[in-house]
Amino acid sequence: MSDHIKIKAAAGTWVVRAAGAVLGxxxxxxxxxxxxxxxxxxxxxxxxxxxxxxxxxxxxSCPHKGAATYYNLEAKSGTFADAAWSxxxxxxxxxxxxxxxxxxxxxxxxxxx
Length: 113
Known about the structure:
DUF427_sf; mainly beta; 113 residues; Metal Binding Protein, Guanine Nucleotide Exchange Factor, Chain A; DUF427; seven-stranded antiparallel sheet
């Protein structure tokens, strides 16, 4: 793992909300710290209502985590483009985040209960 990336269990219960709906709640979330960036909470996919998400065409690459896949949130109020991302096959050293989703805080709310 890159020396500037730390992954640990996110203590407590975490919830993700958007467009007036709870999209997921988890006691098994992970907290990823990367250098000077704000911490990011990753939710296990099993704890997210994936029926609200469609894979988008957007991808990105991080030299420390690998290739990211993005998801659009489809809500009654409209589409929130690229509201979530996932590292489907993260590079060695950050494999804990495989199968987890992170969320764009400008599009959804991620809160500790």
